[in-house]
Amino acid sequence: MFQDIGVKFNYIPGADRYKWVRYNVTDGYEDASGTSYTTSSKIYSLRIGKLYRIHAYAVDENNRVLAVSAPVEIRGEKGWDTVINFWLK
Predict the structure, then answer these.
(1) Among candidate residues 84, 77, 83, the one with its CA nearest the CA of residue 1
(2) Is the pTM of this model over 0.70?
(3) CB 40 within 8 A of CB 88
(4) Within 13 A of 24's CA, how many CA atoms are on the CB side?
(5) Angle 60-63-68 (CA atoms, 0-180°, nearest 5)?
(6) DSSP state of 39
(7) What is the pLDDT of residues 18-54, one digit of tens each?
(8) Residues 6+ apart with CB under 8 A from 88
């Protein structure tokens, strides 16, 4: 069983895209990453019962990091419609 979650990023001037990295805390490895060209996206397939740590960052067109978020921990839960708001600074 899996859970999908929504993610939102605050707007960062000069950002070309927003990236996120997901680390599976339960099993001890980075298991996914993604890119969004808007301030919202989806992260798919969090395994129910597993604990994850996700952090996000904004980059410019030259791939320079402009802002980062604090990590957010979330456990995959059946039936939850979850949205994480990342505050990039």
Answers:
(1) 77
(2) yes
(3) no
(4) 13
(5) 70
(6) S
(7) 999 999 999 999 999 999 999 999 999 999 999 999 9
(8) 9, 10, 12, 18, 56, 57, 58, 66, 67, 68, 69
